[in-house]
C-alpha cells in the first residue's frame, strides 16, 4: 500500500501524539525529540486525541468482522450447493443459523455480560449498528455516546443537541450515518467516519420522540409531540412529507420489513399503519388502555400458525370490517408488537388490524419491545426493572430477568449480527446481554 504525502504526515503526527500521550515526554524524551526532528513536525495541537489507538482497534474489529463474514459465506455456499436454500425466506433463515447456531433460541440470559457507564443522566434510547459491534446511546445529558459491545469499551461522545436525546438510528448503507433526535425540536445526521454533524433538520413544532432510517437509507422518519410524523430526504435535509392522523403526542415509530409501511403510536392509545409510498393511513389499531410507549415490527417464523388467536377475534379488524382473503394475503408485514403504560405487551397482525395476543406479566410501564430474529419470541423491558421473554407459540412468559438494572429500563435493542441484546436505563448505564 502506498500512502500519499498527506497521509504520511497524518500518520507521523498520530504516532507522535501516541508517544506523548502514552507516557509523556518523561518516558520517551529522546525518541520523541528525534522523531519530531526527522519527521519535521512542529506541533500536534490539531491531532485528535488517541487517534492511533482508535484506528488500531477499528482495524482489528473490521478484520474480525471480515473473517466472520467469510465463514458465513462459505457455509451458505455449501448449503446452496447441497440444494437446501430455495427461496429468499429460507436463505434468510440459513443466514441466521450460520451466524448464531441452528438450535439457538436467541433469548437473553442473566447476569449481564457487561455494564457500561459514562452518561451523566438517564439513558433514554439505544441503537445497535447493523454491521459493526457498535452501540449508540442517547441520554438526558444531551449527549450521544458510542460503545463497542464486543470489547465493552467506550469510543467517543457526540455533542450538538441542547436537549434530551430521544432517539438514535443507524443507516444500513455503505456510508455509515447516525440519525438522532431531541427535545430541542431538531434531528441531526452524523457521519460515522468523521463523527461530524452533517445536517440539522428542523420543522417540528415540539419535542421529537423517535427517529428511524428507511431501509433504502435515503429517507428518515421522525415523530413528535406536535402530533405529526415527518419524512426527511437524507441528501438535502428537506422535509418532503408530513403525516397527520394522531390526536396527541406521537411517541414511537417502527418501519416494516418491506420498507413501505410505517407504524406510529403514542398518547392517543392508537397505532396507525401508514403506507409510505402514498402517505395513506391504511389501518388503525386499538386495544391498549393507556399511552403506548413502544412498537416494533418483526418477522414471522416460517412455521407461524396463529390461526386460533385470530379466529378468537372473529377475523374482524378494529373498524369492524370482515377481512377478505385478498387483504390477508396480498402483503405480509410480519408481526407488530407494542408495549404500553397499561403494563401489557400486545402482538398484532398489523395489516388486518387484529390483536393476536396480550401479555400481562409486567408490573409497571412497558418501555421497550423487540421481536427476536427467529420471530418466535418477544423481549420487553419495563419500569419494573425487568426484562421478560414471551413465547409467541405458547402465548406465555418464558423467562424473567428481575432487577436487570437498578432503575427503570427505558430502551432495548437487538444486534443484527451477534446474539446480543443491549438495554439502557434511568440508572445511567447500558447493559450488554448474551442470548442463547
Automatic annotation (TrEMBL):
Keyword Repeat part of the UniProt annotation: yes
Residues in WD repeats: 116-157, 158-200, 201-242, 243-284, 335-358, 359-400, 402-436
Which Pfam families does the record match to this protein? LisH_PAC1 (PF24951), WD40 (PF00400)
Residue stretches in coiled coil: 59-86
* GO terms for MF: dynein complex binding
Q: Which residues form the PAC1-like LisH-like dimerisation domain?
A: 5-43
GO annotation terms (biological process): cell division; establishment of mitotic spindle orientation; microtubule sliding
Main localization (coarse) = cytoplasm
Q: Which UniProt keywords apply?
A: Cell cycle, Cell division, Coiled coil, Cytoplasm, Cytoskeleton, Microtubule, Mitosis, Repeat, Transport, WD repeat
Organism superkingdom: Eukaryota
Q: Which InterPro entries match?
A: Dynein_regulator_LIS1 (IPR017252), LIS1_N (IPR037190), PAC1-like_LisH-like_dom (IPR056795), WD40/YVTN_repeat-like_dom_sf (IPR015943), WD40_PAC1 (IPR020472), WD40_repeat_CS (IPR019775), WD40_repeat_dom_sf (IPR036322), WD40_rpt (IPR001680)
Which cellular compartments is it found in?
Answer: Cytoplasm, Cytoskeleton; Cytoplasm, Cytoskeleton, Microtubule organizing center, Centrosome
**In the UniProt record, which is one GO cellular component term?**
microtubule
Query: Per the similarity annotation, which family is this?
Result: Belongs to the WD repeat LIS1/nudF family.
HAMAP family listed in its UniProt record: lis1
Its function?
Answer: Positively regulates the activity of the minus-end directed microtubule motor protein dynein. May enhance dynein-mediated microtubule sliding by targeting dynein to the microtubule plus end. Required for several dynein- and microtubule-dependent processes.
- Can you say what this protein is called? Lissencephaly-1 homolog
Q: What is the lineage of its organism?
A: Eukaryota, Sar, Stramenopiles, Ochrophyta, Chrysophyceae
Amino acid at each position: 500500500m502506498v500512502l500519499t504525502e498527506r497521509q504520511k504526515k497524518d500518520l507521523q503526527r498520530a504516532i507522535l501524539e501516541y508517544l506523548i500521550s502514552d507516557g509523556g515526554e518523561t518516558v520517551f524524551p529522546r525518541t520523541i525529540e528525534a522523531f519530531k526532528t526527522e519527521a519535521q513536525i512542529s506541533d500536534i495541537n490539531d491531532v485528535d486525541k488517541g487517534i492511533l489507538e482508535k484506528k488500531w482497534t477499528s482495524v482489528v474489529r473490521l478484520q474480525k468482522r471480515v473473517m466472520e463474514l467469510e465463514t458465513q459465506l462459505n457455509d451458505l455456499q455449501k448449503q446452496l450447493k447441497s440444494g437446501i436454500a430455495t427461496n429468499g425466506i429460507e436463505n434468510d433463515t440459513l443466514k441466521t443459523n450460520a451466524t448464531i447456531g441452528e438450535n439457538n433460541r436467541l433469548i437473553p440470559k442473566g447476569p449481564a455480560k457487561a455494564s457500561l457507564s459514562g452518561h451523566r443522566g438517564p439513558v433514554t434510547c439505544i441503537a445497535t449498528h447493523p454491521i459493526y459491534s457498535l452501540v449508540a446511546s442517547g441520554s438526558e445529558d444531551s449527549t450521544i455516546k458510542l460503545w463497542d459491545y464486543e470489547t465493552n469499551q467506550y469510543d467517543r461522545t457526540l455533542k450538538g443537541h441542547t436537549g434530551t436525546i430521544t432517539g438514535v438510528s443507524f443507516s444500513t448503507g455503505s456510508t455509515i450515518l447516525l440519525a438522532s433526535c431531541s427535545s430541542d425540536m431538531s434531528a441531526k445526521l452524523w457521519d460515522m467516519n468523521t463523527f461530524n454533524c452533517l445536517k440539522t433538520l428542523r420543522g417540528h413544532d415540539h419535542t421529537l420522540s423517535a427517529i428511524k432510517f428507511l431501509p433504502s437509507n435515503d429517507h428518515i422518519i421522525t415523530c413528535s409531540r406536535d402530533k405529526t410524523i415527518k419524512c426527511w430526504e437524507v441528501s438535502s435535509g428537506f422535509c418532503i412529507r408530513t403525516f397527520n392522523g394522531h390526536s396527541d403526542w406521537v411517541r414511537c415509530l417502527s418501519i416494516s420489513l418491506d420498507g413501505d409501511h410505517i407504524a406510529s403510536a403514542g398518547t392517543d392509545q392508537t397505532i396507525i399503519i401508514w403506507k409510505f409510498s402514498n402517505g395513506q393511513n391504511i389501518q388503525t389499531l386499538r386495544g391498549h388502555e393507556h399511552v403506548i410507549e413502544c412498537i416494533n415490527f418483526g418477522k414471522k417464523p416460517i412455521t407461524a400458525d396463529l390461526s386460533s388467536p385470530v379466529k378468537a377475534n372473529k377475523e374482524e379488524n378494529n373498524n369492524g370490517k370482515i377481512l377478505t382473503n385478498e387483504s390477508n394475503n396480498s402483503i405480509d408485514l410480519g408481526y407488530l408488537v407494542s408495549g404500553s403504560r397499561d403494563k401489557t405487551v400486545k402482538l398484532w397482525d398489523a395489516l388486518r388490524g387484529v390483536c393476536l395476543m396480550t401479555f400481562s406479566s409486567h408490573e409497571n410501564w412497558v418501555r421497550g419491545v423487540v421481536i427476536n430474529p427467529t420471530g418466535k419470541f418477544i423481549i420487553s423491558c419495563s419500569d419494573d426493572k425487568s426484562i421478560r421473554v414471551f413465547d409467541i407459540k405458547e402465548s406465555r412468559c418464558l423467562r424473567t430477568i428481575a432487577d436487570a438494572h437498578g432503575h427503570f429500563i427505558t430502551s432495548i435493542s437487538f444486534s443484527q449480527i451477534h446474539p446480543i441484546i443491549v438495554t439502557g436505563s434511568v440508572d445511567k448505564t447500558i447493559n450488554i446481554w448474551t442470548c442463547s
